[in-house]
Structures are given as structure tokens and as C-alpha cells.
Amino acid sequence: MFIRKSLVAIASLSLFACGNDDGGGTSIVGPAESVPELNSMTMPLSSLTSAPSNEFERHLKNGIYLRNQSEFRVTFGDVPESVASADMSFSGTNVQEQGVDEGDRIKYDGEFLFIANNQAGDVSILEEDRGQPLTSIRIMQRQSQGEMLELNTVTVNEEASSINGMYLNENTLAVLSDIYQYNIAAASFDEMFFPVNSSFNLSLVDVTSKQAPQVNLSFTIEGSVVDSRRIDNMLYIVSSYRPWLEDVVYADTEQGKLDNYNKIMQTDIAELLPHYTDADGNNFNLVNAENCYLPETATERDGFDGVITLTAINLAQPTEINSICVNAEVQGLYASQQSLYLYGTEYQYLEGKSSETSVVHKFNFNANTIDYRASGTLDGRFNWSLSNLRFSERGDYLRVVTTTGDSVIGLTHRLNVLAEDGNKLSLVSQLPNDINPQLLGKVSNDGKVYEDIQAVRFFDDQAYVVTFLKSDPLYVIDLEDNLNPVIAGELEIPGYSAYLHPISENLLLGVGQNVQAGKIQTLEGDVDTASSDDFAPIVEGAKVSLFDVSDISAPKEIHSIVYQDAYTPVEFDYHALSYLTNSDGSTRFAIPIERWLTETRVDSEQQKYDVWYRENELAVVEVTSQQTIAELQEIGRIKASFDDETQNTSSGWQDRSIFHQDDIYYIHGAQIWHSQWSDLTQVLGPY
């Protein structure tokens, strides 16, 4: 049997530790006379346990030794939702769960706009070649006529290579910045996810005075940010950390292996856990061994060298910092207002056959702490793109969608419902089942499903699932009875939706791609995109669809708009979507669009040549009602235009926008274009 390392994109909440410089002394002493026989590192599929610190220490050190003795040594270099509130007059960050804020590159409070300017910079630029920090924050103020005025540009951390995300809590701006250490030759995905010698910065900036903001707190933390969330005053950060011992090098002799093992085992555990440094250079433990969890099935022969830290910090009282850690692999996180879930998948290959088993760990938010609750396993994986949207907590139940198989042998998609049972998350229902055997995805002539899942979204007692191969089946799953989920209805249309946005109990917006021959609607009129090749459908462009889901047994597409030869970053990052629901029930949406175009030029010798360039614009659409009489209307587009001397070097990947009453702001790079709902042909800026 050959077991491959799980491909994990570790999701770890990392906030800053219980400020304590006492990490505990070494409990494993030696020297040993021989290296014990150790099991290979795999993803444990058991519940977690708060084991004695010496057991945690052995597990971590075993993992460090196992990683060190891998034939592939890694070298690292220093290289620089749902429904909006109708009484809001401006839009905010688009999030998965209402009440759970997510970090983004812009934050707006109705008057002041903060923009993380990563300078569209090449983060591979060496520090000595930068000339100035790659990252800064523009502070803008909305004026009486809607125009934007820059008040200040500040650099929070000069070592940062990019700003990971920001949160605005009253007059405190929390800024998470990455300080990258790049993996030149990672042997596996988890080595990329746990970069060695990496660090990040958390700064809390007092922005009471926008002209003179003050950094009240600055921590540089060992590890790498995976994700973060804010609930009221509490900030939760997910980070990963892999310890590195410079004097322990790969050995191919028995004596060298023994020397490495003894060096690792006799290293103080405090040196192997992440630390943070304050602005005065004082160094503290981010987490202590006594506050860490292990898989309950771990033995003396098991180990893993990565640490996931879950930290909670009170933004109103930032000295209140609490951290726990998990010495195991995970792949992502999902957070509700009450709970945090970490998840991951173990991939195994046995006699030419593959299998995938996933684990989910549940933690509860309890005042200023995070408490472990339970774990469960499921057959299948969650895939990578927007995997958190496959999860939803509703009352006492966790609903989650998994996938097994591949496009060769066929795919099986399941809706799973889990409930807490002691320290276990137990499976209480599943779809398909014996009573409701219908498969998710169109069944081919051989009885198999080859359509993979493109989008999942939960809303109240429904789950919406989009599968795709050549067309887009949209499935509506009825979860009114979590113990008896049922596919209530389905719809097949051209193209697919990669992101689903519930507008109301009646309407659903889909954003994705149009992939099928036929007519598409643009501002320039209908365009014939007919193709005779049924086996190689051509991606025609970014597609926005409005669905009527009022009758869950018969969902239907009301209207769609396609932007020819373009894509939208909303397909991969739902923060790129902005929306504002008005008091009359209409909802305005802004969707960034990017396409590549060519321009023929003539050189000095009159030779023609083609130049590729980006075209970036903001598409503005309206859903006229929250009822089934609603229409999807394109209002217009705001183009990011530049003068002849300015090149468009910024990718649309991080484009953002804001609605404020009738004003619309399009943020491309660090610049802002401004227009009004009544006439999008008049564009001011860039500011």
C-alpha cells in the first residue's frame, strides 16, 4: 500500500498568544541510542484531545524528524451574504454569513474609505530593489458632492510584501500583512502551505484622526495567515507554522539520522512553537504546549511538524489575547456566528484505486476564547475553490457537500448533515439515500455522473448546488427537515454559475461563465456564438443569471447577461461582488469585468505588430424586486480609463466597488473611478 501525503491548504486561525514567555522546558531527554521506528505522516481522521504537553511535544518533534528525513528537502529564500439590510445607505464587504465579517483589501464606513494598495507589485522583487515598501493604505474621504479626497497614505509595516486583509471596528483598523518567504522547490502542497521562516504582521491602527493615524499595536508573528474572521469586537486569525532547525540537515547514514533525531528531541519545545515580537522587540510565545490539541489516535510513533494556531483578540481591549493550537493537518475553515470548523482531506492510493476521507473539527466561540467541541469524518473531499461555501451551520446541524471520484471513473456528490454527539460529529442524514436515490449531476448513458460541482450556497432551509460539464444543472435541495433532505427541483441552462448569491427566498443570482452555442445578450445587441463542435464548448464570456426559486420544485432562469470574451473575479473571490438593497426591494449589484484585447501598432520601420492589453470595467446591474416579478437589468459599465502616459498594470483580480446611495465607486488597483446611478456615462477620476 502507498499512502500519499494529503494535499492540504491548511486552514488555521492564528491570533496572538496568551502573552507569556514561559513556554515550558524540554520534557524529552536523551540521547537515544537508536531512532525509533516511526509511522509516515498522514492526516489523522480522529477527534482531537488535549493531551499532556509531553505527548504533544513528542508528536511535533517526531514530525520534524520525519520531514527532515524526506528525500525532498525544501529551500526557502528571503523574498521580498446573503440578504442585505434595506436600511443601509452604502454597501459593505460581501460575506458568507451575516454577522461574520471577513478581511478584505477595502473597508468603508459611509464616509471614510481605506484601500490596501499592494501596488500591483511583483512580490518577487528583492528588498534592496524595492526602493519603497510594496504596501500602503490610502485613506479617502467622501465629499459633499460624492467625490473622493485623499487624506493620507500610510505604510503600516515596511517589511510586508502584501496586505492580507483589513477590518474596521469603529475607529480601529486591524491590518494583517504577509511577510513572504518563498518556497522555491516545494515537494508537496502542504509544504507550500506551511512555509518555513515565514511571518506576518498584525497592526491595530487608531484612525480617529484620518490625517494622523497612529499604530497602537504591532505584532510580527511567526507563521503564515490562512484566513481570519471578525465577530463584533473579536478578531479571529487562522495561521500555520512549521518550525525549522538550521543545524539539522538531511542525513543518509544511520549515525547522521540518529544525531538529527537527538538534536530535535533535546530542543526546548518553546523554540519549536510560533512566537511574536512587539514593536519594542520583545519576544513572546504565541501559544504554549499546554494549550495544544492532538489527534486522539496519535501514538508514540506518529508525528506531524505543522502547527495550526487559533487565536482570539479583543479589538476593544487588545491585551486580551487567547490562543490554542492543533498539531494536525487541515485544509480550510468555515465560521458561523457561534462556531468555527476546520477541515481537511486525506488522499490514499491502494492497489491502483484511490479513496478520499475528510475530517471536520468543530470549535465554539466562547466569550474571548475558542473551545474545542467535536470532530467527524466523511467520505469524499471539498475541492479547493470557495470550499467554505460547501458548509453551513443551521441550529444544531452542520450541512456540508462532499465529492468522491474523478472525471474518468465518475463523480459522486453528497449532501451530508452532521450533529454533535459527545466529542463526535455524527452523520445523521445524507443525500442521495435509499429513499431519495436521485444523484446530484446529470447521469450519462453509462449510469455515471461526470459533472463536477462549480458552486454551492446555503440559504435558510435550502441548498443550491451547480454541477457542470457542458451545461449547468442547478439543483435545489430542501432542508426543512435536516433528517430527510430531498432534491426538490432542478434546472438545466447554458453555461454555469461559479458563485451563487441569495437575494431573497424567491430569487438567486448566479455569476459564472456562458459555455454553449446560441445567442447571448450584450449592450451592443445579440451576438451569434453558434459552434458546430459539441465536444469542445467555447467559453463565451462572464455570465450573470437571475433565478426564480420561489417554487423549489421548478426553479427557472428569469434572465441572463453575458459579457463577451471576459471573466469576472467574482467567480473565485466573492469579495469582488458589491450589492445594496434599497427600501423599495430592488438590489443593485456591481461586478468587475476583465478581458484581454489586442491593438495593432506600427513601428518606426512601418512594420505592424500586435500589443496585448487589459480592459477593466465595472458592470452595474439591478434586480428590480425581491419578488418573482423581478427583472435583471444592466444599467451600464464604468471603465477604468487611463491617460496616454499611464499604463494599466493592475490586474482585475482584486477589483472592488462601493455603492453609496446613488454614487458608485470603482476601485481598480489603488485608484477610484466615480459615477452615479442615474448616468453611468459620466465618470470622474481616477482619484
From TrEMBL:
Pfam families: Beta_propel
Species name: Thalassotalea insulae
Domain of life: Bacteria
Record's protein name: Beta-propeller domain-containing protein
